[in-house]
Amino acid sequence: MSQITYPKEQTLYAHLPVTYPAIYLQIAEERGVSQAQVLAHAQLNPQLFAQTTGRVSSQDYEKLVTAVIALVGNNGLGLEVGARQPLTAHGSLGYALMSAATIADAMYILQRFWHVRGRGVNLRYIDDPHCVVFSIYCQYPMPPEVEKVLLEAVLSGIYYGLKFLLAGENLDAELHFAMPEPDYLTQVSHLALPTLCYEQAVTQLRVPKAVLHYPIKTANPEALTLAIAQCERELALLPTMQQDMVMIVKNLLQHHTQGYLTPEQIAERLHLSERSLRRHLQHQGTSYQQLVEAARQRDAQQLLRQTQADIQQIAQRLGYNNPANFTRAFKQWTGQTPTEFRARLRRMLHHD
Question: Which positions fall inside the HTH araC/xylS-type domain (predicted)?
């Protein structure tokens, strides 16, 4: 039997606690696939998971999730993971949430220290007059099946964490997903999930604003002070430029009449050399080209939804000289051609 050669981890930023991938490994074990099999399939060094206090990179986390999907299938994997994540799995952040006085205080702490336990997924609070709305999206491009699992895991995890803090109080929540409805929902009915809405514009959790005033029964001011101090220390240890670079570049890659900014133009705006920019992105497991493709995917769907421009015009606005190349790329992104995507939207609006 040939010996497995593991990739070098030194170039990857290991900031994710192994408590997260451990849940995937546990589910795989229950479905008949051992941890050793998963790690061998993912080409990951078992030593990364030998210590309960260990940490892995976003890239290694993605490899592990990919391997679990390949070996045991999806079948509601992300929703199952979210349901199994206790708040204590989030370390100091989890203890801070449990020690907060009210749900409003906990929500503020979650926003403030999200990156301490971030997993390649960004969290954004949306100011809505009637609801508490948290929107999530992947920080960098990843395979669609992996993205689906991670978004379901993170969003359902926030929901179950909130339910724990409410200690039995009724929670009228909705989970919205910007993806087609899967065929495995009947297999996760035992999870007591809230209302699930698929094919939405964005992936988000929505709960009534009244919950913000609910007191948390595990509140403890002394424990809160200690947990917040630890969160502050962990946040200070994060390499800020490296951690935020993907989000900064994504925000700069907005569509306009002159096209997307080039790597040279982005580097100039950030007072970096182009080489440094590319290195920062590489450390985050992505590249300028991948982020441009993600921006095109985002803007293509927006243009198809919000304008009457024909497919050729949209292709040209996104930098595709040949509309056939745009159609091919769009089908890879969504599984549909632009024409099919727009027709489905019209059917949904007509049905409503």
Answer: 243-344
* 32 conformational bin, left if phi > 0, alpha if psi -120 to 50, beta if neither: left
Scored b (16 or more CB within 10 A) or e, 212-222 reads eebebeebeee
Pick from 224-233, 268-277, 309-318: least confident = 268-277
Query: What is the widest separation between alpha-carbon atoms in the chain?
Result: 63
**Residue with tokens 């989890």, as numbered in its chain:** 94
Token reading at 221? 């001011």
- CB-based contact 192:160 (threshold 8 Å): no
Say how many C-beta atoms besides its own lie within 10 A of residue 46's C-beta: 12
Report pLDDT digits (tens) over 230-284: 999 887 776 554 556 787 788 778 777 678 889 998 888 776 789 988 988 888 7
Domains defined along the chain, listed by start: 1-73 (no CATH), 76-237 (no CATH), 240-351 (1.10.10.60)
CA distances from 340 to 127, 304, 308, 318, 321 (A): 33, 11, 14, 19, 21
The pLDDT of residue 244: 66
Q: What are the backbone dihedrals phi and psi of residue 118, each rounded to the nearest 5 degrees, phi first?
A: -60, 150
Name the pTM for this structure: 0.68
* H-run or E-run covering 28: helix 19-30
139-168 tens-digit pLDDT: 666 788 888 999 999 999 999 999 999 997
